[in-house]
Amino acid sequence: MWMPGATAPAHLKNELPGDYGFDPLELGKDPEDLKWYVQAELQHGRWAMLGVAGAAAPEILTNMGISNLPNWHEAPSYDGYFTDATTLFWVQMLMMNWAEVRRWQDIRKPGSVSEDPTPFSNAKLPAGVVGYPGGIFDPLGYAKGDLKTLKAKEIANGRLAMVAFAGIMVQYDHTGVGPVANLVSHMADPAHNNVFAAKFIGF
């Protein structure tokens, strides 16, 4: 349980990955809504994990002298890409639209788009498992192991990443530097460089 002594709502039966009985507003009371919320949290968590890695990695590589990449906040206006930002935006829109529409169709009708329309072998998702990859998207065969534990770990890391990226945005708004610079600054002088000592103007 998310809090010792708490009682889980009737609609949360400890069947979902990361289910700790937390739904004070009863948003998942409707079973159909709950299915969508489960998928929404899963996708947001995955994007947040990529976002945190994407915010930290360029800064780390630049500090190591391996590359000279922009801060995550300055990346959209960076002019060192192989093509202009407008072209990158539309290519991403088209590719993401194709992937997201297929994912949406699979949520609405599980199994309807479970087979990849490419000439790869074994490019089929596991039966009845919505939102979790298989076939060519599972080259290391994780789905054949303790999938229940892996799902719980993924959603826990995804939730942490969502909170972390919110922190990265607030930090940048206050300090004007990336997460790695903020972490180094805090570690150098934790007594003065922390959220309690900061003066959040406008918050």
Polypeptide structure, described:
It is globular, with a radius of gyration of 21 Å. The chain has helices at residues 31-63, 85-108, 147-175, 179-188. It is 47% helix and 0% strand. The chain is mainly alpha-helical and 203 residues long. It has a domain at 33-173: Chlorophyll a-b binding protein (Orthogonal Bundle). GO terms for molecular function: chlorophyll binding. This is Chlorophyll a-b binding protein, chloroplastic. Its main location: plastid. One of its GO terms (biological process) is photosynthesis, light harvesting. It comes from Ostreococcus lucimarinus (strain CCE9901).
Structural Rg: 21 Å
Strand content: under 5%
CATH topology of the domain at 33-173: Chlorophyll a-b binding protein
Distance, first to last CA: 32 Å
User: Number of DSSP strands?
Assistant: 0
Which descriptor suits the 3D outline?
globular
Q: What average pLDDT do the residues reach? A: 85
